[in-house]
Amino acid sequence: MEILGVDIHWLGHASFKIEKGQKIFIDPFQLRVPEKDADLILITHDHFDHCSIDDIRKLANKQAVIIAAKMCRAKIDNFKSQVAKIIYFMQGDKIKVNNASIEAVPAYNVNKFRAPGVVFHPKEMGYVGYVIEIDKIRIYHAGDTDFIQEMNNLGRIDIAMLPIGGTYTMNVEEAVEAVKAIKPKYTIPMHYGSIVGSEKDAEKFEQLASVYTKVVLMKKE
């Protein structure tokens, strides 16, 4: 689907393909077919449904650059000989690759617990989301996160990709609060339909968030 001149494909869960001058993949997971012409592969953190070795292997090629959260090194180093470059990011790091500027931004939990007092995605571990700017269009992929204070400081966001599935990330109502803070022109809900969350959650999000943003419900490709 084309949004603001950018071709965006939802590949299911938190996985996207973005096409505008190059092919950018974010958190590839359960890809249906290999694509050996990827230019840039972004990984938000090391959990299996975001840093999937089998799926990165489907994209790896000699022109591809992998940018991954630093915590992913043990997994991603395996691809050193298969791609052009691997870059490990911490929150706040920035780089330009071809026509895209990439910035890592915080992603973490505040109220999603695996055990009493222990959240699934602790802030200090360095989980990230990404802000991607291509031809002045700013795209925010939130990664696995709750509604966090840093969302107030992202600057202009044209297209936001926000998790809504709950359990490990924001639920629908929390994602609506994130929309109010970020004020994106378009919002694509994600992180539902496979491991957690359902299409009903996406429909509810559309109903509640459409007051504040243009919600785009995508079909999994």
Report on this structure:
The chain has 221 residues and is an alpha/beta fold. The radius of gyration is 16 Å and the shape is globular. It has a seven-stranded mixed sheet, with no helix packed on it. The chain has a seven-stranded mixed sheet with strand order 8-9-12-13-14-15-16. A two-stranded antiparallel ribbon has the order 10-11. Helix 3 (172-182) runs parallel beside helix 4 (199-209). It is 15% helix and 33% strand. It has four helices and 16 strands. The chain has one domain (2-215): Ribonuclease Z/Hydroxyacylglutathione hydrolase-like (Metallo-beta-lactamase, Chain A).
Which structural class is indicated by helix and strand composition?
alpha/beta
How many domains is the backbone divided into? 1
Q: How would you sum up the global shape?
A: globular
How large is the count of helical segments? Answer: 4
Strand segment count = 16
Helix content: 10-25%
Strand % is 25-35%
Summarize this, please?
The chain has helices at 53-59, 73-76, 172-182, 199-209; strands at residues 2-3, 6-12, 15-19, 23-26, 40-43, 65-69, 85-89, 94-97, 100-106, 113-115, 118-119, 128-134, 137-141, 159-163, 186-190, 214-215. It is α/β, with parallel strands linked by helices and 221 residues long. The chain has one domain (2-215): 4-Layer Sandwich (Metallo-beta-lactamase, Chain A), CATH 3.60.15.
Question: What tags apply to this protein structure?
Answer:
221 residues; alpha/beta; Metallo-beta-lactamase, Chain A; 7-stranded mixed β-sheet; 4 helices; globular
Can you lay out the helices and strands and say which pair or pack?
Blueprint: E1 2-3, E2 6-12, E3 15-19, E4 23-26, E5 40-43, H1 53-59, E6 65-69, H2 73-76, E7 85-89, E8 94-97, E9 100-106, E10 113-115, E11 118-119, E12 128-134, E13 137-141, E14 159-163, H3 172-182, E15 186-190, H4 199-209, E16 214-215
Helix pairs in contact: 3-4
